[in-house]
């Protein structure tokens, strides 16, 4: 089955991101397709490479990046939500005159249309959040 | 196969206090460009999003409630408000914004976008959806 995933919460204040990670891993292991993972609201904080949790804690950002590399997974951070929360890639850095960027490997910043498209193209949309 | 799916956005949170309501409305507005069969549900504290006379001046937060009036122009005209949620908060439809749309299939007659429905009916409507976003 083809799944679209929406993650609505920050990686460390809410279990939604880890639940989404676990779901995505299980789905891939079972032979399903992940059309796209879309990060919205504080979920965009899953996509900053500056995340540095204590060493005995899971690095959720790295976990996403590894999944993206291993399975060519499309990880999309909502641009409007990202701008509010300081998640920046090279293009956004240039466009908004910022002095750096922080997007993690395997993530890209794009518009809300990518979420709608994921809903249209996938057989199931699964939302993780409150 | 038709590319048009039944999309429903389920709003469960108050308009202020968290950003879910405002960022949900942003998805609805962007999603309208994709010409899907869209409906929006308001349950629990989500019913407060449609309250008329919202004033956030003392909060220092943007009052985005006028934006709901634009939904009709985007062909988003099926807004379902759960009756039980309204009643539990001492509200009636008269406390909500009078959101309208012009029905192109009925000589552009102006019609109400908001429908107050009991939970059981809303459950049936939810059951018919293909894509459900919850905020």
Plain-language structure description:
The complex is a heterodimer of chains A (130) and B (135). Chain A starts with a strand and ends with a strand. By secondary structure, chain A is an alpha/beta fold. The radius of gyration of chain A is 14 Å and the shape is globular. Chain A has a five-stranded parallel beta sheet, sandwiched between helices. Chain A has five helices and five strands; from the N terminus they run E-H-E-H-E-H-H-E-H-E. Chain B has a single domain (6-134), classed as Hypothetical Protein Ychn, Chain: A (3-Layer(aba) Sandwich). With 135 residues, chain B is of the alpha/beta class. Chain B is 20% helix and 24% strand. The model of chain B has no long low-confidence stretch (mean pLDDT 95). The radius of gyration of chain B is 15 Å and the shape is globular.
């Amino acid at each position: 089955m083809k799944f679209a995933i929406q993650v609505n919460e920050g990686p460390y204040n809410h279990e939604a991101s880890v639940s989404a990670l676990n779901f995505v891993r299980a789905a891939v292991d079972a032979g399903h397709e992940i059309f796209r993972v879309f990060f919205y609201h504080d979920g965009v904080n899953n996509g900053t490479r500056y995340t540095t949790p204590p060493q005995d804690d899971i690095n959720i950002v790295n976990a996403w990046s590894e999944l993206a590399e291993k399975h060519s997974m499309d990880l999309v951070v909502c641009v409007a939500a990202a701008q509010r929360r300081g998640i920046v890639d090279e293009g956004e850095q240039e466009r908004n005159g910022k002095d750096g960027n922080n997007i993690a490997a395997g993530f890209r910043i794009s518009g809300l249309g990518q979420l709608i498209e994921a809903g249209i193209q996938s057989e199931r949309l699964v939302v993780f959040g409150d | 196969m038709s590319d048009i799916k039944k999309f429903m956005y389920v709003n469960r949170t108050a308009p202020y206090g968290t950003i879910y309501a405002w960022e949900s409305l942003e998805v609805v507005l962007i999603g309208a460009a994709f010409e899907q069969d869209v409906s929006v549900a308001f349950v629990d504290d989500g019913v407060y999003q449609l309250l008329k006379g919202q004033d956030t001046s003392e909060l220092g937060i943007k009052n985005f409630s006028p934006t709901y009036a634009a939904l009709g122009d985007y062909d988003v005209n099926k807004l379902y408000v759960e009756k039980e949620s309204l009643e539990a908060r001492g509200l009636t439809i008269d406390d909500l914004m009078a959101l309208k749309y012009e029905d192109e299939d009925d000589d552009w007659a102006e019609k109400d976008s908001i429908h107050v429905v009991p939970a059981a009916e809303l459950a049936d409507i939810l059951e018919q959806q293909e894509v459900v976003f919850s905020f």
